């Protein structure tokens, strides 16, 4: 049963984030903190990119209102606040001035080092991958933590191309992380995740497309995507590296599989073609979904549901004594299958069209020929 205090924290962070968004939107317009339509960006109007700033205000503000977890040292939260703030500030500067990619990577490494050394949140073992005993990382603990965190940050940044997409995947992952923490008895971590979920939910209300609003009112910006990726990694390490409430690290792969698989496979395809693995293109999963006929909302909902499904199946597998090695091997197999499928774009589109065909059939049934009024198209 979820404690009432947890609901209070989530609601408080959501209210603070909502107030922050309402206050920051006019500030963003005044100082031109906007994402302008250009190049690969297909939104129709300049949009404020202060969602990440609003979320961290809501989260840290909530932590000030409530007592911090007694099981976590103060340095852990201070390190998180400093590192998260650094990512948000640099992200806002990147949105404004388009900073070099290598500079962003350096800042992400510094932020991870802050939480892994000062805060003490890092990967120290990989769980029982090779047998009954945990595989200790030893001297590779901090390098692995940096690699995993920076990788997740950039995977999330690369996939942030549809309104509500990256935020929804993170919200789903965080809710499942909270459920795993609660199930393992780590209620303190569940309580600490609640403000993050509340702030993210409030942001998504302004970031989603709705029938009465066909565009996002605010974007999270590069700072927001970096902060969310960093936060999901921070929470995952706290969940899987707590000796009193052990949860196998392999589970975390299945709680946010879409950006991880998409990023790994796409980078391999780019290297195979002789391109830079960081070169932008239109081959991400949300691009394929769009070309297969999915609307932005269908893309968000279907892939968020896919994440829920994989997380649930992985959790049930662990409950039924499947090994961590089996979970890891299955994840690698899924990466291999997606790599094979997307090696030929048309092959991937055929599969996605098949998956989407029930939605297309319903749309045809509700078309003007059936007496429905056609939707009004907005000109870009």
Can you walk me through this structure?
Helices cover about 65% and strands about 0% of the residues. The protein is mostly helical and about 375 residues long. Strands 1-2 form a two-stranded antiparallel sheet. Helix 1 packs antiparallel against helix 2, helix 4 crosses helix 5 and helix 6 packs parallel to helix 12. It is globular and about 55 Å long. The C terminus is likely disordered.
Question: What is the H/E order?
Answer: HEEHHHHHHHHHHHHH
Indicate the mean pLDDT.
90
Number of strands: 2
Query: How far do the termini sit from each other?
Result: 48 Å
Helical proportion?
A: 55-70%
Q: Assembly state here?
A: single chain
What is the strand arrangement across the widest sheet? Answer: 1-2
Shape: globular
Q: For the CA atoms, what is the radius of gyration?
A: 21 Å
Beta content comes to under 5%
Tally of alpha and pi helices = 14
- Report the uncertain regions: 369-380
Please outline the major beta sheet.
2 strands, antiparallel
Quick structural overview:
The protein has 380 residues and is mainly α. The chain has helices at residues 4-30, 51-65, 74-97, 101-118, 141-159, 165-183, 187-207, 221-240, 250-253, 257-272, 285-291, 296-319, 324-342, 345-365, and strands at 34-35, 47-48.
């Amino acid at each position: 049963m979820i404690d009432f205090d947890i609901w209070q924290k989530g609601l408080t962070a959501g209210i603070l984030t909502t107030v922050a968004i309402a206050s920051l939107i006019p500030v963003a317009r005044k100082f031109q903190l906007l994402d302008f339509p250009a190049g690969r960006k297909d939104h129709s109007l300049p949009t404020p990119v202060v969602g990440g700033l609003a979320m961290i205000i809501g989260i840290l503000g909530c932590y000030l209102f409530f007592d911090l977890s007694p099981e976590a040292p103060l340095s852990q939260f201070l390190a998180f606040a400093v590192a998260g703030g650094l990512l948000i500030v640099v992200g806002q500067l990147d949105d404004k001035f388009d900073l070099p990619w290598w500079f962003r990577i350096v800042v992400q490494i510094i932020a991870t080092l802050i939480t892994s050394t000062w805060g003490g949140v890092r990967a120290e073992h990989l769980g029982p991958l090779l047998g009954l005993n945990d595989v200790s990382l030893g001297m590779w603990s901090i390098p692995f933590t940096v690699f995993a965190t920076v990788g997740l940050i950039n995977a999330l940044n690369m996939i942030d191309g549809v309104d509500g997409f990256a935020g929804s995947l993170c919200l789903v992952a965080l809710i499942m992380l909270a459920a795993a923490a609660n199930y393992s008895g780590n209620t303190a971590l569940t309580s600490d995740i609640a403000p993050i979920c509340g702030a993210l939910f409030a942001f998504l209300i302004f970031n989603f497309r709705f029938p009465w609003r066909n565009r996002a009112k605010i974007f999270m910006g590069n700072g927001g995507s970096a902060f969310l990726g960093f936060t999901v990694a921070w929470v995952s390490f706290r969940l899987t590296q707590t000796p009193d409430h052990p949860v196998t690290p392999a589970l975390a792969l299945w709680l946010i599989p879409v950006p991880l698989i998409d990023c790994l496979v796409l980078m391999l395809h780019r290297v195979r073609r002789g391109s830079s693995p960081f070169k932008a293109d239109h081959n991400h999963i949300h691009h394929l979904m769009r070309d297969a006929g999915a609307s932005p909302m269908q893309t968000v909902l279907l892939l968020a549901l896919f994440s829920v499904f994989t997380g649930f199946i992985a959790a049930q597998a662990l409950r039924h004594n499947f090994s961590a090695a089996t979970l890891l091997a299955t994840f690698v197999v899924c990466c291999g299958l997606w790599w094979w499928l997307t090696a030929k774009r048309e092959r991937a589109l055929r599969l996605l069209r098949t998956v989407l065909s029930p939605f297309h059939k319903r749309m045809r049934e509700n078309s003007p020929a059936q007496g429905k009024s056609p939707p009004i198209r907005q000109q870009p």
